[in-house]
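We give this protein:

***
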Amino acid sequence: MARVIRFHEHGGPEVLRIEEADVPPPGVGQVQIRVKALGLNRAESMLRTGAYIETVENWPSGLGFEAAGEVAALGAGVEGLKVGDAVSVVPPPSQIEWPAYAELANFPQHLVVKHPATLSWEEAAATWMQYVTAYGALIDLAKLAAGDVVVITAASSSVGLAAIQIARMVGATPIAVTRTHAKRQALLEAGAAYVVASAEEDLEARLAEIAGPEGVRVVFDPIGGPIFTPLTAAMARGGILIEYGALSPEPTPFPLFTVLGKSLTLRGYLIHEITTDPARLAAAKAFVLKGLESGALKPIIDRSFAFDDIVAAHRHLESNQQFGKLVVTV
C-alpha cells in the first residue's frame, strides 16, 4: 500500500484526495520509483477540472506528469538501472495511465533518467516537462540558433524560463513577454535580453523596436487569443510561431494577410511529439543533460509544498502568481 492522490469528480483543488492504494509491481520494461518530489503543471489542474485533452473514463483518477526519486524495483528486461538509483521522469504520454502523484509509481524505462547528482530532488522533479517542452519547440522544430531573435510569452512560467535559458545556451536573443512590469527585474536576472509588458505597452511597436527591420524569427506562445495579431505583425518573413497552449479564453484570430504576406508558419505543438519518438527523445535528453551539467540550464523553483498540502499547491498553481516551478515534496 502507498499513499496516492486521486480525484473522484471534476472540480476545484478541493476534489483532490490523499488515499491508500495498492501499487502493482513494475511490469516488463517498467521502473518503480519511490517518489521524493513532484513537479506541478497546468495540465494537471486542467485534467482535474475536465478541461484537458485527456478524458477521464474510469473513476477515481490519478494525475501528475513529473516525479523524481529512488528506484524501488525493476521490471523484467530493464537494463542500465539498479535499485537505489536517483532518477527523474520525462512526462509520459498519459498522466491518467502513468500518474505521478503518489509515494510509489511505475513508469516506462525509456522515460526514466539518471539525472546529475548536483540536482536536488525538487530540481530534478522540475526538470523534464519544462526543458523538453522548450527544447522540442525551439531546437527540434524552429532550429533556433545564434543570432536569432525569439519572443517568449508567459515568460515567468516554468516553460517560459526554460525557453529563456535554452535561447541563451544557443546564442539567441530572448525577448520575454509578460503582462505587467512586476516581474521585469526577475526576468532580466533569469536571462531575458528584453522584457515587454503586454498590458502596459504597445506589444507590436515594442517588438518592432527591439527586433528592428529583420523582425522576430521565432515566437513561442502558450496563450493564443488576440495576442496573435501583434505577435505575427512583428515577425520576420519566413518566421515560425509555435503554439503550445490555449490559456486565453478569447477567440484566436487567424491573421491571414500577415501570414500570406510574410510566408509565416503557425504550428501547434505538444511535448509528446518528442517523447514518443525514440530518436528525438534521445536528442532531447542529451541536450538537457548537457545543459544541466554545464550549469546553462538550472530549474527555477518558485515554491515547495508538502504532499499533504496538495490542495493548497493546486490553488497556488491556479493563482498565476508563481515565478518558475511549483514542486511537492513527498
About this structure: The domain at 130-272 is CATH 3.40.50.720 (Rossmann fold). The longest strand covers residues 30-39. The two ends are 15 Å apart (CA to CA).
